[in-house]
Amino acid sequence: MSFEKELDTYLRARFTLIVLVTHEEERSIQMITRMCEESHRTCMSWDIADGFQWITAGNSSLPSAKDPLAALEQIDKMDGNAATLFVLKDFHDFWNNAQVRRKLRSLSQSMKFTKKSILIITPSTRVPDELKDEVVLEDVPLPDSNELQEVLGHLTEVSGVRINLTPLGKEKLVKAAVGLTTSQAQRVFAKAIVRNGTLDDTDIDLVTDEKKQIIRESQALEFFPFTESMDNVGGLKVLKDWLRLRDSAFSDRARDYGLPMPKGIALLGIPGTGKSLTAKMIGGLWRMPLLRLDVGALFGSLVGESEERTRRALHLAETIAPCVLWIDEMEKALAHGGLDSGTSTRVFGTVLTWMQEKKAPVFVVATANDISSLPPELLRKGRFDEIFFLDLPTIEERHDIFAVHLRKRRRLPQDFDLNALAAASEGYVGAEIEQAIIDGMYFGFNDNEREFTTQDILKALAQQVPLSVSQREAITYLREWLREGRAQSASFQEVREAEDQFVRLEIGPRK
Prior knowledge:
Elements: H1 3-12, E1 17-21, H2 25-38, E2 42-47, E3 51-54, H3 68-77, E4 84-89, H4 98-110, E5 116-122, E6 136-139, H5 145-156, E7 162-164, H6 167-176, H7 182-196, E8 198-200, H8 203-217, E9 221-224, H9 237-245, H10 252-257, E10 264-269, H11 275-286, E11 290-293, H12 305-320, E12 323-327, H13 330-333, H14 343-357, E13 362-368, E14 386-390, H15 395-408, H16 418-424, H17 430-445, H18 454-463, H19 467-470, H20 472-483, E15 488-489, H21 495-507
Parallel strand pairs: 1-5, 1-6, 2-4, 4-5, 7-8, 10-13, 10-14, 11-12, 12-13, 14-15
Antiparallel strand pairs: 2-3, 9-11
Helix pairs in contact: 1-2, 3-4, 5-7, 6-8, 7-8, 12-14, 15-16, 15-17, 16-18, 17-18, 20-21
């Protein structure tokens, strides 16, 4: 059901107090106007600056009211037999007025026997407790591709604008703007036009860049470009095969075949084993936008602000879908309980419910280091398609990791003894291997800027104290968690190999 039809249903059902949550007041008024004209309903607005104004064509004089209480009194006096909708703008500014709250509550009850309704447009979901039983909250959806195409069409009708867009380029340009409000999309399209007096396929990147900035302004979401590929991630064969198998999972062909859309994965395990890098790699592999959810930025000081920010961020992710939503170190971000009056618990519950019920193609990648801090309801079946454990890399994986990081430093892996390096780095995670290469480069750089060698990296490895030694007890606990069968290994499925590594860890890494 479209937004306008749903709103008309509310009014025909005699819902007397409706709150529209949106930042797009102008677009909301346009949709309300169309709905009222089609249903032959009279509509007028009120705000603190201009008082009452007709939205649809009126046939009588407008009442005068310069304050919110007077406006409600005038609405109370008007004819209840005429189907009339009263749109109150910025009325959330008066929630703290006890008289206004009381009058609004009384009106919502008495108007049930009339054809009058009140609709409040506000950017906030906060509603006074006294009104929560009377109010119907409705979110105004962001514009879809059809609406954005109309916005683009209006702009391109401006005299003097050259259009060099192919049909496919126009489709890509509009899709690049999905997730923006109408005003934001209009500004982005206008900027693309005035930049060089024309609109062509090269402006798609400009729209994408502007979209990144707007998403960043949402505070809780960060946009990541496609920078990582599978070649940049060493090892993790099982996880990579799992991802390749779902490369086309969001296509129409998969829906026609009867496959459900993937929900997401949880990446758990030892710090430094590439969990965050894997999240970035998934966005590049599937060519889907990668959004990082900064849950710490969701929390606000005002009552209800945190929950509102959470809903807004998740709604934005759904609008941009298909996309990958990355929740990093979720054991810290979603830690609930504590002394915050239950705010973190409510935010946690909102995210959990959304993960379970979401219909949009948003693939969630949640990473965590401290498994003991994760609530059991997070890891139950239905939240994620699979739970992967990223263990200490095997000797084959360490070989690959050295090769990856040497190539990143513009060096040829074949110039180094990778077998010796892999053998000497037992018990080291990927981040520690990368640091050993960097430390080895410093040895060469400070020795008359000579080319660094295998021996330099081996020297750097010998000077490091890996996590498997400094955090032996914690690492042992994490690996026992894997051995109990609570997750699938991201590397190899053979139990023997995992057990062999566990025994070697108890002895300690070789030097």
